[in-house]
Amino acid sequence: LEEPVSGRTGPAVLRGFALFLLLAGWWLPPLWTGADTARPTTALLVDRSLSMSLPASVGGMSRADSAALVIGEIDPSITMWFGDSVRSAAGDVSEGGSERADDLGSSDAASRVVPALEAARAEGADHVVLVTDGELDDREEARPVARRLGLTVREERVAERPARLAIRAVDAPTAVEVGDTIRLVVEAAAPGASI
Prior knowledge:
Elements: H1 9-24, E1 42-47, H2 63-72, E2 78-82, E3 86-88, H3 114-122, E4 127-132, H4 139-149, E5 152-157, E6 166-171, E7 185-190, E8 193-194
Parallel strand pairs: 1-2, 1-4, 4-5
Antiparallel strand pairs: 2-3, 6-7, 7-8
Helix pairs in contact: 3-4
């Protein structure tokens, strides 16, 4: 015990509290109980741009129909549509909620994924499954944003990747004069096809 001296009460109380925390701290309950473990971790982001109404492949089903098949295999914590803006999907799209998976084709003129990534992270998502045809307006901007937000992104493409086109041959006249109309014959090729 310390001898009572004026002006020493404050430091004595602080020392006693520090000693109490040091000795009893091992038995005190934790400050965080883990009550928010139900927080969503996986976000499903579904492209709702105009291009989703196009065929997924030559003569095949639409990209929206392909997306509906992919969505049925995913069990997300949260689901959002994106295009011109970001909207939370009403109901469970895999179970045919009020916005059904087969109604994916919309009138959104753009396909911007950066706002969707930011909205998913704000909802607590750590992992994102991106269902798109691959025609994103801000793909290059999205990569550093996903890294900055700490999101892992898996892209599920519902359209065939466009074939690379190559010029196989060009047939042109060897000599022309000013004012002449010339005829060029270009032979282009894509993998497995000739155009």
